[in-house]
Amino acid sequence: MKKGFSPEISEQVVDEFHQKDLLNDHTYARKFSQDKHNLKLWGPKKIKSALYNKGVPKNVIESVIQDLRQEIDQKDICLELALKRRKHFLRETDEYKRKQKIFRYLAGKGYSSDAIQRSIPIIIEQLDA
Questions:
Q1: Neighbour-count burial for 35-73, b at 16+ CB within 10 Å, e otherwise
Q2: Quick one: 35 and 81 in the same domain?
Q3: Which of 58, 75, 91, 98 could form a disulfide with 119, with the two C-beta atoms 3.0–4.6 Å apart?
């Protein structure tokens, strides 16, 4: 209607989109979360924030994030992400600061502190190997 189309045509288009399931928040949120996780390795927290910023209803977000958490192993993905940046983390000689950098990086990717804490000993072991 903002583009100058009549209300009847706008309503007709919206109805047609609903019939073809093109205006389904749950489908959109599920596809968005799968894409961001598979392509960019985003974690549940970052995906949740992005969906919230896009205006997806909170109950839909919670449902999709719950499904995502069951499908993925956050600990393994944290290990994979950290090892991809191996050279970056090995520049830091102080082990405590190295752990902090790893933690901040993985938290920025959207992974839970619990998953990060569980993966850090394995990451440090792999980095030192």
A1: ebbeeebbbbbbbbebbeeeebeeebbeebbeebeeebe
A2: no
A3: 75
pLDDT per residue rounded down to tens, the chain (129 residues): 778 888 898 889 888 888 887 788 999 999 999 999 999 999 999 999 999 999 999 999 999 999 999 999 999 999 999 999 999 999 999 999 999 999 999 999 999 999 999 999 999 999 887
Q: Where on the phi/psi map is residue 87: left (φ > 0), alpha (ψ -120 to 50), or beta?
A: alpha
Please state the separation of Cα 50 from the chain's center in Å.
Answer: 8
What residue numbers bound the domain in which 46 lies?
Answer: 7-71
Residues 86, 123: one domain?
A: yes
